[in-house]
Design brief:
about 190 residues, alpha/beta, 7 helices, about 15% strand, globular
Length: about 190
C-alpha cells in the first residue's frame, strides 16, 4: 500500500490541505494520505499553536467518512522537537508492509538540506512536491527521489485563517463545516 505522509501543524486544517491531499490520492498514485500532526516543528514557534489534540480533533472532524484519509498522532509521544527522519524510521518499523512517501511544498524542498539527516530521507523515501507561490523547489527538484506534481496552486493558509478569526471575520467557507463549527464553539483563535 502506498501512503503519502502529509506533515504539518494543521493550525487549523482547511480546504486547501484537503484539496491537495484529495488530488494526490486521486491522481498521484497514492492509496492513502495520512495527515501527520506535528506537535512542534523545529522551524516554527510553538506559542501560536492550538494544543496537539485539538488540532488532531479538527483533522478527524474534517476527514470523517473518507476512507483514503487518516489522521496520525504518531509524533505526540516522540521526543520534541519532531524530526521527520525519526518519524519515518518509526513508521517504517511499525508498518513494514506500507510504502511511505513524503508530501511537501516546493518551499520546504528548497530548505530540505537544513533538515536532520536529509540525505537519508532522499536515499530511502520518495518525496512528492506540490507547487507553492514564489518557490520552484530549488536545487533538489531534479533529485531522482523527488517528483514534482502539477497540483492546483492553493493560496489559503492557516496564518490567514487565524488572523481573519482574530479580526472577527467570517471564514467558515475556507474549511469543512464540522471544523468551522468546532473552532467557533471552542472560541479558537479569537482575541
Amino acid at each position: 500500500m502506498k501512503v503519502g505522509l502529509y506533515f504539518g501543524s494543521f493550525n487549523p486544517i482547511h480546504n486547501g490541505h484537503l484539496m491537495l491531499a484529495n488530488y494526490l490520492a486521486m491522481f498521484g498514485g497514492l492509496d492513502q494520505v495520512w495527515f501527520v500532526v506535528s506537535p512542534q516543528n523545529p522551524f516554527k514557534k510553538k506559542n501560536s499553536l492550538l494544543p496537539d489534540y485539538q488540532r488532531f480533533e479538527l483533522i478527524n472532524r474534517a476527514i470523517e467518512g473518507i476512507s483514503f484519509f487518516r489522521a496520525s498522532d504518531i509524533e505526540f509521544n516522540m521526543p520534541k522537537p519532531s524530526y521527520t527522519i525519526d518519524t519515518l524510521t518509526y513508521l517504517h518499523e511499525k508498518y513494514p508492509d506500507k510504502e511511505f512517501s513524503l508530501i511537501m511544498g516546493s518551499d520546504n524542498l528548497e530548505r530540505l538540506d537544513n533538515w536532520k539527516n536529509y540525505e537519508m530521507i532522499l536515499k530511502n523515501y520518495h518525496i512528492i512536491v506540490f507547487p507553492r507561490e514564489g518557490s520552484d523547489g530549488g536545487s533538489l527538484k531534479t533529485h531522482p527521489s523527488v517528483t514534482i506534481v502539477d497540483t492546483p496552486l492553493i493560496e489559503v493558509s492557516g496564518t490567514f485563517i487565524r488572523q481573519c478569526i482574530a479580526d472577527g471575520k467570517d471564514v467558515r467557507f475556507f474549511m469543512p463545516e464540522s471544523v468551522w463549527k468546532y473552532i467557533d464553539e471552542m472560541n479558537f483563535y479569537r482575541r
